[in-house]
Amino acid sequence: MGISTHILDQGLGQPAVGVGVLLEVDDGSEWTTLARATTDGDGRVKALLPDAETFVAGDYRLTFALERYFAGQGKVAFYPLAVIQFRVADAALHYHIPLLLNQFGYSTYRGS
Q1: CA 43, 38, 23: angle at the middle one, nearest 5?
Q2: Are 100 and 8 in contact (CB under 8 A)?
Q3: pLDDT attached to residue 47
Q4: Are 6 and 96 in contact (CB under 8 A)?
Q5: Residue 108: which of 27, 2, 10 has the closest Cα?
Q6: C-alpha dihedral, 66 to 67 to 69 to 75, nearest 10°
Q7: pTM score, whole prediction
Q8: I want to staple 35 with a disulfide (CB 3.0 to 4.6 A). Which of 4, 23, 66, 97 is the partner?
Q9: Could you tell me which of 23, 15, 93, 109 has the C-alpha nearest to residue 62?
Q10: What is the pLDDT of residue 53?
Q11: Cα gap 40→19, rounded to integer Å
Q12: What is the 3-state secondary structure (H, E, C) of 10-46?
């Protein structure tokens, strides 16, 4: 069914708007780019993989470009990128990968 994400900036207590997101899949020999997006006004990318035919079981990677986001707040990002690798076991399901962040750390989980 696809992949979505949502970023909340815990330091500001609000969604992280304008963060670049890259989705890649491991094709067995290298990482292949599937999609690029930017978080909307609610910190979301609702459909990172709109073409259901390309969504298969396997290893995926989301890369969040945090350096520019924090620079826009006049802050230096301790983590310029957040890279989250995850495994899709059943491509019939939806995978929502939220990111909770602040200037000095981040965490993630499988959301709904």
Answers
A1: 105
A2: yes
A3: 86
A4: yes
A5: 10
A6: 120
A7: 0.94
A8: 23
A9: 23
A10: 65
A11: 8
A12: CCCCEECCCCEEEEEEECCCCEEEEEEEECCCCCEEC
Burial class of residue 110 in the structure, from the number of CB atoms within 10 Å of its CB (0-12 exposed, 13-18 middle, 19+ buried): exposed
CA atoms within a 13 Å half-sphere pointing along the CA-CB vector of 10: 11
Task: Tell me the average pLDDT across 9-13.
Answer: 96
Read off the pLDDT of residues 79-106 as tens digits, 9 standing for 90 and up: 999 999 999 999 989 999 999 999 999 9
How many whole angstroms from its chain centre is CA 109? 11
The pLDDT tens digits for 27-78 are 889 999 999 999 999 999 998 876 666 789 999 999 999 999 999 999 999 9
